[in-house]
Here is the input.
Amino acid sequence: MPTSPYQRVAAEIRRRIAVGDWPPGHQLPSQAALAIDLGVSIAEARRGMAVLRQAGELEGTPRTRLRVAHPPAVRTLLDPDAPWPYAKGDGAIGTCRASVDLASRLDVRRGTHLSWELVECLDPDLRPSHLVTTWWAGARPTSWDRSVAEARLHQLTAHEAERLGLAAGLYAWCIMRTRLRPDGTPAEVADLVLPADRWRVRLA
Here is the structure.
């Protein structure tokens, strides 16, 4: 039986979801309204909601009202180089200097001037599916011979979590993809960040 106020908040939200009062996609009341409704402080309401967001039961960013999460549709990634068949959301572009890791992956000197692009891939219902960040040196390649990839588990950064509407620290797959020229040198590299509760990875 929950004893602390924030645990009671989390339990009551779960109860309302379970009985169908708050179905998937339902927007929760504000922290202040929920605190009044449940007779707790705003801080305790915030903490109880944060527990459920961390668990993936609520979704949304800190700047928006939280919603009841939809059960995740689990996909299997077979080809990290396949084009994304659905819409893309807000993206970003920029430049940076090659870190030790990027320099090694791109086979350039550390500090080399690089360009980068972040793409937010969306599900058919227009919710964020995953993120793809690509880096390259010089002119962006328009063709390549083949690509290789490896997968590792990764905890979402605050920036990634905000983009995906999830909580920082949740586990995701990070697929490190390298597109290679015919001579075997890297043309560009990318990180695909896929929430682990929505994706399975099966690389050839």
